[in-house]
Amino acid sequence: MLLGGGLGPALIAQGIASILGDIRSGKPGWRVRFNVAQYSLAMVAAWGAMRAMDVSPRLNVLHSFAGLRA
Q1: What CA–CA distance (Å, rounded) separates 25 from 27?
Q2: Does residue 32 form part of some domain?
Q3: Which of 11, 12, 37, 66 is the most buried (most CB within 10 A)?
Q4: pTM of the entire structure?
Q5: pLDDT tens-digit profile of 10-63?
Q6: How many distinct structural domains can be found in the chain?
Q7: Other C-beta atoms lying within 10 Å of the C-beta of residue 28
C-alpha cells in the first residue's frame, strides 16, 4: 500500500487491519492502541526512507537502482 497509494491509504489500511485482528484475538484496548501506534510509526519511518531516496509512491513507475550513485 505504501508504494502503491502513499502514506495516507497505507496508514488507514494497516490501522484497520491491525484493529480488527487485535479485537478478534481478544487483546485488551491498551494493546490495540499500542499496536496501531507502533505500526503507524514504522510506516512513517518507511515513508521517510522512501522520500529520502526519491522513490515515488506509485507502482506504475519503474525504479532503477542502476542510476543510484554512492
Answers
A1: 6
A2: yes
A3: 11
A4: 0.72
A5: 999 999 999 999 999 999 999 999 999 999 999 999 999 888 887 666 655 555
A6: 1
A7: 9
- Three-class DSSP labels, the chain: CHHHHCHHHHHHHHHHHHHHHHHHHCCCHHHHHHHHHHHHHHHHHHHHHHHHCCCCCCCCCCCCCCCCCC
Is residue 24 in a domain? yes
- Exposure string for 43-63, b = 16+ CB within 10 A, e = fewer: beeebeebeeeeeebeeeeee
Take residue 35 and report the three cell numbers written for it.
499496536
Query: What's the domain range around 19?
Result: 2-52
Q: Does 38 map to a domain? A: yes
**Any domain includes 37:** yes
Gap between the Cα atoms of 49 and 46, Å rounded: 5
